[in-house]
Write a structure and sequence with these properties.
The protein folds into two domains: 149 residues, 3-Layer(bba) Sandwich (Glucose Oxidase, domain 1); 196 residues, 3-Layer(aba) Sandwich (Rossmann fold), CATH 3.40.50. The chain contains nine helices and 19 strands. Helices cover 22% and strands 32% of the residues. By secondary structure, the protein is an alpha/beta fold.
Length: 364
């Protein structure tokens, strides 16, 4: 631990730091290549590490001290870390919290995730903000690298590599009042927890589940989860969603689910310069002008003026005006780009789950 290491950016910038987490050897050094993104969240680093939406990415934490409350499995969004590598200003080696079950360094070691600390994360974040997301590679001292190879890296098959492979039925502790099919595009665990808390039986299904199978399951509602990668890459899923929305079942999309739903209805998406990632992202509700603080993690957005007839923008990002939500009038559906399940982050928009439940109950 704490051997000299370097972050190499595809624009030629080099940062010197110290390694922690998984040891960089010839066998796993390629695992430290990824798309550099940053998150402004001050807490919730465990949720960040285990969020499948970060698949293929090297995550930079802008908050300087990470790891101070250790590792708490109950807070995980998936069973294991999903990031390609992890960069922090300072990593805490002696965590303190009554729920703590381990330290960050050991956790990354056990899961084969390379970490880099001791670099100027503020300077790195400024580069990404000004130049946009770019590829990077963490290498140990003396290791060779090629800028040409670095520029070729592309995140592919992200949903295929994060979705579940089999259906799973989750039962609420109390009375079962509704059945919701949850499409797992790389779902955060707190989405199903929020549904279970509201008396829903949750049937988690793989990303490539057909409309025919959804009809057989006879759900009261459909949840389209978050997930990683370029939404437009998922042509097969988008085509199937056209058939699924035709079933006239109340549908709620979050993050990637929001984007895929929009694409299935004829809208377009585009890649943002550096994305929105963190627990302090402001969005404005277009109908009321009310501003909510939200948790976000996305690098793509729905193009506002590409929405078809029967759909309208319901939320916009208060900083750049990009689409943060869509209401549909031609199908029983709505979606948001941010995370109303928000663990760990603000819970301002948790009421959207109540809206989804009300939509289901009104049609039963």
């Amino acid at each position: 631990m704490n051997n000299k290491a370097y972050l190499i950016l595809e624009n030629g910038t080099i940062f010197e730091g110290k390694s922690f987490g998984a040891e960089m050897t010839d066998g796993n050094s390629e695992g430290a290549v990824g798309e550099i993104v940053f998150t402004t969240a001050m807490t919730g680093y465990l949720e960040t590490l285990t969020d499948p939406s970060y698949y293929g990415q090297i995550v930079v934490q802008t908050f300087p001290l990470i790891g101070n409350y250790g590792v708490i499995p109950a807070d995980f969004e998936s069973p294991r870390p999903q990031v390609k590598a992890y960069i922090v200003r300072e990593q805490c080696q002696e965590p303190s919290n009554f729920r703590c079950e381990g330290d960050l360094d050991t956790f990354l070691k056990e899961n084969g995730i390379v970490g880099l600390c001791g670099i100027d994360t503020r300077a790195l974040t400024k580069i990404v903000r000004e130049s946009g997301v770019m590829n990077g590679k963490i290498v140990k001292e003396g290791a060779g690298f090629s800028f040409a190879d670095l520029k070729k890296y592309v995140i592919k098959d992200a949903v295929k590599n994060t979705t579940c492979t089999e259906e799973e039925v989750l039962e609420p502790k109390g009375e079962k009042k509704r059945r919701v099919v949850l499409f797992d595009f790389g779902a955060k665990s707190h989405i199903s927890k929020k549904l279970l808390h509201r008396g829903c039986e949750v049937v988690v299904v793989p990303a490539y589940t057909t409309a025919e199978r959804v009809k057989e399951l006879a759900p009261d509602g459909i949840m389209l989860s978050n997930g990683p990668g370029d939404p437009a890459e998922n042509v097969e899923i988008i085509e199937e969603l056209k058939k699924i929305t035709a079933l006239d079942i109340p549908t709620f999309g979050i993050c990637l689910g929001h984007q895929l739903l929009a694409l299935s209805q004829g809208a377009k998406t585009h890649k943002l310069k550096y994305g929105h990632r963190g627990g302090n992202q402001p969005v404005t509700e277009t109908a009321t002008g009310r501003v909510f603080v939200t948790s976000q993690n996305h690098g793509y957005a729905v193009v506002n003026d590409s929405l078809p007839e029967g759909a309208k923008v319901s939320f916009v990002n208060a900083n750049d005006g990009t689409c943060e939500g869509v209401e549909y009038t031609n199908i029983p559906a709505f979606s948001v780009q941010f995370h109303p399940e928000a663990c760990g982050g603000p819970k301002d928009t948790g009421f959207l789950f109540e809206k989804f439940i009300a939509m289901i109950d009104d049609r039963k």
